[in-house]
Structure formats: C-alpha cells, structure tokens
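lol forgot to send this yesterday, sorry. struct tokens for the thing we talked abt
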C-alpha cells in the first residue's frame, strides 16, 4: 500500500478557473479568422509550445503573432487576448491549500508562460484576493517556461522529483489533461484526472484514499 506524502497540483483547471474559448475568440477577432482548440497550432504555429518551454522570449512570441497580420497588431492587444482565458481563483481555495500544505509536501507543476503568470499574480491573486506571495500556499512552484520542458515531456516529471528529492511512489499528481496524467504514471507517480467542473477540495481526499489503497 502506498503512503502519499507529496501532492503535485496542476494550476489551470485545477486551482485556477479557465475559459480557453475566450482566448480563441479574442485571437479570432484579432487575426480575422476562426481560431479554435482544434486548429490553433495549424493556424498560429507551434511556437505556443516553445513559449511554454521557455524556448522563445516574450518579444519573440509577440513578434510571431504580429507577423500573422502583417505586423500591425499592438503588443498589448496580443497579451490581452492571450490572457482572456484566465478567470479567477475561488476564495475558499486559499484556506484549503493552507491545510494541504500543513499535511503534505504541496507543489504546483504547470504548463504556462510569463504573460499568464504575471497576470494571475497581479490581477487575480493580489488585486482580488490580497495574496502577495503565492508561494505561501506551496512548498515549491514549478512552471514549464522556467524548467525548459512542459507536460507531458517525461523530463519535466523527472526534474521535479530530482529537485525535490522525493519518492515518486509517494507522490500524487492531479491534472485536468489525461495525457499529462498518463505521462506522470509512466514515470512512477500516482496520478489522477480531475474534472475541472468539480471542486478540488471536495475530491482530494478521495484521490488520496484511492491511491493509498493500491
């Protein structure tokens, strides 16, 4: 039987409410063509993935999108469209996360980028909830653009385990994307898919119990 000592949360969809179609609608308007989940990489290029891996700078990311419209898009328009998906963090999550941190080694592992993190930290956490240091709720936070890899790259899971010096068999990973869950399991972690329509605070103990029963 496993004993869970470490909990690794995905960020968007688990702790942060997202509306990804809002960003697709915003880019569709900016670029004057239909952008959706199914065609975003074909229409706009896979540099989005490079951006989340920290392989290109903020400036290069903006320039690549500007090129799609002949260079006549304002950087702030692009950043606003990209951040449109970022909605809010429920206030009741904060005391829940404080409790989790006291009982487990609590971590975040997120595919993200500098624009999203800056917006969430300033406009959501600080302005709406008075949280100045998100790290107060977690032992460590791992962002893909800082790590050089993104989920489901196996390297991202291995790098976290090495950095934390923890046992993957004592680690529970929670994500709202099944391919990321599968990749974590292939690296020896316990991992579960969480439906973002559900409240994580209502499901976490069930996930822990299920893993510890194995």
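and heres what i got for the seq, position by position
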């Amino acid at each position: 039987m496993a004993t869970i000592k470490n909990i690794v949360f995905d960020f968007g969809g688990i702790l942060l409410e997202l509306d990804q179609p809002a960003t697709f609608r915003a880019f569709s308007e900016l670029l004057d063509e239909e952008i959706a989940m199914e065609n975003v990489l074909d229409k706009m290029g896979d540099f989005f993935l490079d951006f989340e891996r920290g392989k290109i700078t903020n400036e290069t990311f903006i320039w690549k999108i500007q090129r799609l419209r002949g260079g006549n898009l304002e950087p702030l328009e692009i950043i606003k469209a990209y951040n449109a998906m970022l909605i809010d963090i429920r206030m009741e999550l904060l005391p829940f996360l404080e409790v989790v941190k006291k009982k487990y080694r609590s971590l975040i592992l997120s595919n993200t980028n500098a624009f999203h993190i800056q917006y969430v930290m300033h406009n959501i956490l600080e302005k709406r909830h008075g949280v100045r240091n998100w790290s107060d709720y977690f032992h460590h936070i791992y962002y893909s653009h800082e790590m050089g890899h993104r989920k489901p790259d196996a390297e991202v899971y291995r790098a976290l385990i090495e950095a934390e010096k923890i046992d993957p068999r004592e680690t529970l990973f929670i994500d709202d994307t099944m391919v990321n869950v599968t990749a974590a399991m292939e690296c020896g972690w316990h991992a579960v898919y969480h439906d973002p329509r559900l409240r994580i605070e209502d499901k976490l103990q069930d996930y822990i119990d299920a893993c510890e029963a194995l």
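The longest strand covers residues 105-110. anyway ping me if u want another try
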